[in-house]
Design brief:
four-stranded antiparallel beta sheet, 198 residues, 2 domains
Length: 198
């Protein structure tokens, strides 16, 4: 079987992350964290649009063709891309200048799960949060670089990477209640080359 790679974007990111494909729109949304940009690629027309953000933007979830909810530095914002407007939903860790949001994703019921990281990439000052409506709940502490958030196809399991620990953690996941429990190590990369991301 032959694999064909297609270039979707000509944008040169400093730190490209967080691709989200919206099937209904047939559009790819992603971020350039250090470039402070959100990029969209329309797979129907081929059009690419680059949007300026006010600060480091690390993840997003799609609301509709014009709006996303995004993690920008310490804050969850609803961003209207068509108007370049930013509505604050909730803020975390505003007193921790050395931290910022990193990876984040929305579950099938629209809750936004996102973790923070220490910008030196060495200190375990990061945390893991759930945003439901306007309420933020801290679920985990002591992370260095929260990364690689994913769920299994049955929404029974959630995965989370703490990159410098070289471990992929797994949790039992209750989609209806929005709860995680029974944390354990799924994969420990030990001394293998490279670092787990996601």
């Amino acid at each position: 079987m032959e694999t064909k790679l297609i270039v979707l974007s000509n944008y040169k990111a400093i730190l490209g992350e967080g691709p989200v494909y919206d099937k209904e729109l047939n559009k790819l949304f992603w971020v350039d964290i250090e470039g402070k940009k959100v990029i969209t690629n329309d797979l129907n027309s081929g059009a690419e649009v680059v949007y300026d953000m006010p600060d480091l933007v690390s993840s997003l979830c799609v609301i509709d063709d014009k709006r996303v909810i995004a993690t920008i530095r310490h804050t969850f914002y609803i961003v209207d891309l068509s108007k370049n407007s930013f509505t604050k939903v909730a803020e975390v860790e505003s007193d921790m200048e050395s931290n910022r949001f990193n990876d984040g994703k929305c579950d099938k019921l629209g809750r936004y799960w996102a973790g923070t990281m220490n910008m030196t990439e060495r200190k375990p000052t990061g945390n893991f949060y759930k945003l439901e409506g306007k309420k933020v709940t801290k679920l985990l502490e002591g992370l260095t670089i929260s990364n690689g958030l994913a769920w299994d196809s049955d929404d029974k399991v959630m995965y989370l990477i703490d990159t410098p620990t070289r471990k992929v953690f797994v949790f039992d996941f209750d989609l209806n209640k929005g709860e995680i429990y029974n944390k354990r190590v799924a994969v420990d990369f030990g001394n293998e080359p490279g670092n787990p991301d996601g």
